[in-house]
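Good morning,

Attaching, inline, the backbone tokens for the sequence recovery test we're adding to the shared suite. The designed sequence is right after.
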């Protein structure tokens, strides 16, 4: 399911090439960009169509450069790299497990943690995984360096989300 879409904003592309990505506050459910456009950047889907959302107030959305999603019979395998702006370095998540054909969900697990994945979430998504990643390590110094190297989102906001994620490593992977 490695899908490619048209390139998006040059700033996002530049930060992605640097390995930073851009995280943006996610709009509240059922809302759109504000009239002044302050949330417009959040509505930009990265070329891969894959994002990682850290819930909270505010929730933050991080682009994922590429996710590998493989279905082999009744098994699902999901692999992707965590956002550097969230964990401070390069960390790959690899989760796999059985698909429940009656519900189109899969309970997947791996060294990084566990997730429940919906294989038919609707809304233009091909996969949505609610994850608890207790095996992922957050390097706050690495997040601070990456956050200070970009200008799209205030560094303090990115660091606060990383600190929150370190204490409660839950998030949602969405694949288009």
């Amino acid at each position: 399911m490695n899908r490619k879409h048209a390139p998006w904003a040059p700033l996002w592309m530049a930060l992605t090439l640097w390995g930073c990505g851009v995280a943006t506050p996610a709009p509240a459910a059922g809302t759109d960009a504000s009239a002044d456009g302050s949330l417009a950047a959040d509505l930009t889907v990265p070329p891969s169509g894959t994002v990682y959302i850290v819930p909270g107030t505010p929730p933050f959305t991080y682009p994922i450069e590429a996710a590998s999603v493989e279905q082999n019979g009744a098994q699902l395998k999901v692999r992707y790299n965590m956002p550097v702006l969230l964990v401070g370095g390069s960390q790959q998540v690899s989760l796999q497990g059985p698909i429940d054909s009656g519900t189109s969900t899969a309970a997947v697990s791996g060294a990084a943690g566990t997730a429940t994945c919906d294989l038919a979430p609707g809304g233009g998504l091909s996969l949505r995984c609610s994850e608890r990643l207790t095996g992922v390590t957050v390097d706050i110094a690495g997040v601070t360096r990456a956050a200070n190297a970009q200008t799209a989102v205030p560094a303090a906001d990115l660091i606060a989300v990383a600190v929150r994620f370190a204490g409660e490593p839950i998030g949602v992977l969405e694949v288009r």
